[in-house]
Amino acid sequence: MSRIIDYGNLMHRAMRGLIQQVLTDVAANGLPGNHHFFITFDTMHPDVEIADWLSDRYPEEMTVVIQHWFDKMDVTDDGFSITLNFGDSPEPMYIPYDAIKTFVDPSVEFGLRFETQVSDDDEDDETEDGDAPMAEDVPQDRPAAAEVVSLDKFRK
């Protein structure tokens, strides 16, 4: 089999690294200015750790907001842990980067959306299937690319 450059996985790692770098800075220094994040993640990912009542309420995906109050943010190479407030009830959680579906900072109109790549021919695919960052308006038949996502779908 011929060797190819796996741009999808390279972009995947780069964009997850960007999220890690941003969260590491926020954990050390707090949120600057008006920055805040909407992070949507797959609650069924095997490494996600959330309270049972949250996984029951959000059986597929959940969006958390990191803005006014958060505590105990710890960022690692694989994901981050944080305590967020749900109706005056602090809940610790762990979110691996691989579980993240969208990462949006509406204060600067920045966003990433990750979609699972599906291989047409598993036998010819020498790399693992993974998530690749894609913009909302990229047709599924085009190669995955990292682009800024339109925030219109997050506005009310």
Explained architecture:
This protein has 156 residues and is an alpha+beta fold. Helix content is 19%, strand content 31%. The chain has 2 helices and 8 strands, in the order αβαβββββββ. The chain has helices spanning 7-29, 52-57, and strands spanning 37-42, 61-66, 70-75, 79-85, 90-96, 100-105, 110-116, 131-133. Strands 2-1-6-7-8 form a 5-stranded antiparallel sheet, covered by helices on one side. A 3-stranded antiparallel sheet has the order 3-4-5, covered by helices on one side. A hairpin with a 4-residue loop joins strand 6 and strand 7 (110-116). The radius of gyration is 16 Å and the shape is globular.
Gist of the model:
The chain is of the alpha+beta class and 156 residues long. The chain is built from two helices and eight strands. The radius of gyration is 16 Å and the shape is globular.
